[in-house]
Design brief:
The chain contains 11 helices and 4 strands. With about 290 residues, it is an alpha+beta fold. Strand 2 and strand 3 form a beta hairpin.
Length: about 290
């Protein structure tokens, strides 16, 4: 008996779906097409992407920034505010609001490969690319040392240069005397110095000079591995995806309506429920 009731319920459900087949098809299609039409009226957004290889900070120069620090700095007022004032100085918005909106359209992340990926969202491909370039240029300006820092670096660089010259001269002398079988005796201090240790000292001074010179200059555009791209396809709105989601939601809603209507009619057909439904309709009308 239960099997017969189950089969009857399945047949009733199938019959309800067939009877409302047009509704189940037309409503999702119309909803999807309407959504697709609306997406053409929404403002588009494009994303320009850039990749930066930030050098590892050198301990000898006492400065430099890690890739994670650069990613955080790019979202700070130190970088964002100059870009806002340069590109849109008369927007009428407060600097706090403009900064918040700007940061919401920017992403700066560091991947497992150590590279920094910068993404800027704009209303057009050209504007997105311009914003990305502006952020990179503004950050590069922050890497230039301040006046006092510059003086300190120049003193250290001068010392490294003079030290390198002295070590290089000593290296040349030792090499020449070694080739001439020590024609001129070495002093007691020089006798304890090997060519290998002097070579290591020379390499250290060269490394110091390079890192100090880089610290004086700050970072340049050489750190940009991939320049900001000129996007082609918008990232928003996703027309087909939005239409598909709305169509599925409409299908689900119509299906629920069909099932609810079927349950309501089944209740109305039962003698016990008919009286209650009549009273419910009467109470609804009174209200």
């Amino acid at each position: 008996m239960k099997i017969e009731d189950g089969r009857s319920d399945m047949l009733d459900l199938l019959l309800a779906l067939v009877e409302n087949a047009k509704l189940l098809i037309l409503v999702p299609v119309v909803a999807g097409l309407a959504t697709l039409a609306l997406t053409f009226l929404l403002p588009q957004k494009f994303v320009s992407e850039a990749i930066l290889a930030v050098p590892t900070p050198s301990s000898s120069s006492g400065g430099g920034q890690t890739a994670a620090q650069v990613a955080s700095l790019m979202r700070s007022p130190l970088v964002v505010d100059p870009v806002i004032l340069a590109l849109d100085p008369a927007s009428g918005k407060s600097i706090n609001l403009a900064r918040r909106e700007f940061v919401e359209n920017m992403r700066a992340t560091v991947g497992k490969d150590g590279l920094l990926r910068l993404e800027l969202t704009g209303p057009s491909p050209a504007q997105a690319q311009t914003l990305a370039n502006a952020v990179i240029d503004a950050w590069i300006k922050t890497t230039k040392p301040a006046e006092q820092d510059r003086k300190d670096l120049e003193i250290r660089l001068s010392y490294a240069k003079s030290s390198l010259e002295g070590v290089t001269a000593l290296m040349a002398r030792l090499s020449k005397e070694s080739a001439g079988y020590l024609a001129q005796p070495l002093s007691r201090g020089e006798a304890g110095t090997t060519l290998a240790s002097i070579g290591e000292l020379q390499s250290r001074y060269v490394s110091d000079m390079l890192s100090l010179t880089r610290a004086l200059q700050g970072y340049t555009r050489d750190v940009v591995v991939q320049a900001p791209t000129l996007p082609i396809d918008p990232v928003y709105p996703k027309k087909l995806q939005a239409a598909s989601l709305v169509g599925l939601a409409a299908t689900f809603a119509v299906l629920l309506w069909v099932l609810a209507r079927r349950s309501w009619l089944a209740l109305a057909a039962q003698p016990r429920s008919a009286d209650k439904l009549a009273r419910l309709r009467a109470a609804t009308k009174l209200q």
